Structures are given as structure tokens and as C-alpha cells.
Amino acid sequence: MTAEQIIFLIVGVGTLLAALMVVTTRNLVHAALWLIATLFGVAVIYALLHAGFLAVVQVVVYIGAIAILFIFAVMLTRKDARDTGPQMNPNWWIGALLAVLSGVGLVSLLLGWSGSSKTAAAIPSGFDAVGLLGEALVSPNAYVLPFEVASVLLLAALVGAVYVAFNRK
Amino acid sequence: MVPLSWYLILSALLFSIGLFGVLSRRNAVAILLGVELMLNSVNVNLAAFWRYGDVANMAGQVFAIIVFAVAAAEVAVGLALVISVYRRRNTVIADDIDLMKW
What are the extents of the domains in chain B? Predict the structure, then answer.
């Protein structure tokens, strides 16, 4: 076992345990805080994958914006977050069954796939991943169209969210 | 060196946990939390395939960033809908929001 594998195992198990707490804990504020732990674990996974830009964006966008938005939403709908009723559906076991089935199916599929034991080639020295990523996002030969569509989507979501949540009184 | 399958198994398990959250929670905000977990697991997959494939081909990271943008848009509109529903009907329990249920 190399140091990288040990770090991966610790972070991966921690991420999965935090994710389990997100879906099972009763208090929704605690669920949102566990979501922050999960997102931070995923950011460490990005760093292990040498995707430094994704790790930074994960911390800034997911933890800095989305998780805080969740905490605001939980606090604005506080009466239900604190209620004493069950937090699960009456037929939550169907969801659990489907989740276990999909998990077992995906893992068995992956274990049977010959490409899954592949190891990564070393990153070439002087490789500028962020520069290449920036060029790929705005180059007409690469991904400028998805990039522009994403910006239009964000604008539409901005206007839509303000319109839907606007209080007319 | 960590084999590719470890990342893929981690992301499959994270996806299943998110799926469980989406299917079994009653609170609409908690359902959106599950959706976030599922989107994150997809992103781990994209980044892992970028790293273990051709590193000079940035498609994996580019689409991970697109997924970030889509997740931000989804959560903004979703939480706006939840807050709007809470203001009108005073509930965020998904079972009680059944106006359009036949």
C-alpha cells in the first residue's frame, strides 16, 4: 500500500460515511453540515486525481455557495425541519432496495470490466492542466458551445429563481 | 498508485446513497441534498476518466465544470420552488404537495 492509496481509503470511507449521514440524519441543518463534509471529501479526491482546478471550484462553488444556500433554505422552512414526524417515506424500504440493487449492480459490473484495473500514466513535467482547460473552454474547435449554453442556463436559472421566490405582497 | 476501479466504486456507492436519499426522504430540501450527492458522484467519474485516459484531452474536466454550472442552476431554482411552495401551502413535505397528483 502506497501513501496515496492509504489517503484515498481514509478519505473515501469518510466521504461515504458523511454521505450516509446526509441521507439518514433527522435534523436537516445537520444534514447540510454533513453535506459540506461530503463535498470536502470529494474535493480531496479531485486533488488526488491532480485535478486542482476542480478541487478549488468544488470548495468555492459547492461548499461556498450551494451548501450555504441549502442552510438558508432549511432555516427559511424551519417549521418542517424541526417536526417530530418521520423523516422517511412510508415506503422508504423500496428506495433502500433500489439503492442497494443499483450499488451492487454497478460495483459487480465494474469488477467484471477489464479496463478497471488500469493505472494512470505519470503527468508529464511542465503539464499546464489549467491553461489547457481554459483554452478548451473558449476554443471554437473544442467546447465553446457547451460553455455558452451553460452561461445562458445560469442566466435563465438566475431570473427564474428570483421570479419564483419573489414575494408579491 | 490508486487503480481506476477504486474511484469508480467510490462514485457508484456515492450515487447509490444519493439515490436512496432522493427516493426515501419526505422533506423536499432533503431530496435536493440527495440530488447533489448524485451529481457529485458523476463528477468524480468524469475527473477519474480524464486522469486515467489521455491527460491532454480536457473533455472530462470541461464536462465536470458544466455539471457544476448545471448543479448550481438546479439548486437555485429547486430551492426557490421549495420556498415558494412553503410560503403558499406552509409545508415542504413532498407527500403533501399533491395539487397536480391525479
Answer: 4-96
Closest by CA to B36, choosing from A139, A73, A116, is A73
pTM of the model: 0.90
Minimal Cα–Cα distance from B45 to chain A, Å?
10
| Contact state of B52 with A153 under an 8 Å Cβ cutoff | no
Q: B4-96 in CATH: which number?
A: 1.10.287.3510
Query: Do residue A42 and residue B61 have CB atoms under 8 angstroms apart?
Result: no
Is A92 part of the contact surface with chain B (CB cutoff 8 Å)?
yes
Taking only the tens place, the pLDDT of each residue in B14-66 is 999 999 999 988 888 899 999 999 999 999 999 999 888 887 788 888 999 99
Cell reading at B32? 435536493
Q: In the beta sheet, which residues pair with residue B93?
A: B27
Residues 6+ apart with CB under 8 A from A24: none
- A133-155 per-position pLDDT tens digit: 888 888 888 889 999 999 999 99
Of the candidates A31, A99, A161, which has its C-beta nearest B20's C-beta?
Answer: A99
